[in-house]
């Protein structure tokens, strides 16, 4: 008799857990509908300074026994954290339209190539408060590169797309690079 009650109690607990789990899952799924899909093109410039008094990219780690300096800024395994400005035009004092925040790692043993994990957050205009998430390799010495846009926040929720990059200018002495971005984003009406 006692054994039987124990078994029943177990069954009840299991059933309760199962129901709880199911209701948690269904809450997440059922009530969100994507709007109509649309395409947006964005154009901006990315400014990065890796040296000087106020760098926008800093080395946080590199392999033991490697030296990171002006002539060797990214040996394999180097990790940079960035908080870079995005602007409308290429000039350093051009209107700021966003911030690129995240990190990249030097991820090739053969060549200069980084992998980015960066949130491009917009701070003006129609997409103020929205962002794009990039997770992609970037062979920085090639004149044209493509990055994968894998998601976003706000008006770019559930976005996918790609960014075409060209180095606009590079001053190795000052450690300043300006990159032109053309981004094509597929996202949804909200
Ligand atoms: C960077 O470090 C290497 C290795 O120590 C050295 O040969 C080179 O001169 C350094 N470059 C600069 C710009 O400090
Ligand atoms: C962007 O949005 C923030 C937060 O809502 C607001 O404080 C700011 O004034 C907006 N900026 C522009 C340029 O619209
Ligand atoms: C690169 O930066 C250095 C140091 O700020 C500056 O003296 C030099 O004029 C710059 N070079 C170019 C081509 O702008």
UniProtKB/TrEMBL annotation:
Organism expressing this protein natively: Dioscorea zingiberensis
Subunit structure: Homodimer.
Annotated keywords: Apoplast, Secreted, Signal
Cross-referenced PANTHER family: NUCLEOPORIN-RELATED
Gene Ontology BP terms: phenylpropanoid biosynthetic process
Stated role: Dirigent proteins impart stereoselectivity on the phenoxy radical-coupling reaction, yielding optically active lignans from two molecules of coniferyl alcohol in the biosynthesis of lignans, flavonolignans, and alkaloids and thus plays a central role in plant secondary metabolism.
Entry superkingdom: Eukaryota
Annotated signal peptide: 1-30
Protein name: Dirigent protein
Family from the record: Belongs to the plant dirigent protein family.
GO cellular component: apoplast
Localization per record: Secreted, Extracellular space, Apoplast
Main location: secreted
């Amino acid at each position: 008799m006692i054994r039987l009650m124990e078994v029943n109690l177990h069954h009840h607990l299991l059933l309760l857990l199962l129901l709880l789990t199911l209701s948690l899952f269904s809450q997440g799924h059922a009530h969100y509908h994507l709007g109509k899909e649309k395409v947006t093109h964005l154009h901006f410039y990315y400014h990065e300074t890796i040296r000087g008094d106020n760098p926008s990219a800093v080395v946080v780690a590199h392999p033991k026994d490697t030296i990171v300096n002006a002539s060797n800024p990214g040996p394999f395994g180097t990790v940079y954290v960035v908080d870079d400005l995005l602007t409308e035009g290429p000039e350093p004092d051009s209107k700021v339209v966003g911030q690129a925040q995240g990190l990249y790692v030097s991820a090739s043993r053969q060549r200069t190539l980084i992998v980015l994990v960066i949130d491009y957050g917009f701070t003006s205009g129609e997409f103020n408060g929205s962002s794009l998430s990039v997770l992609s390799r970037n062979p920085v010495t090639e004149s044209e590169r493509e990055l994968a846009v894998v998601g976003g926040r706000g008006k770019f929720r559930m976005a996918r797309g790609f960014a075409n990059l060209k180095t606009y200018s590079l001053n190795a002495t000052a450690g300043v690079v300006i990159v032109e971005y053309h981004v094509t984003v597929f996202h949804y009406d909200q």
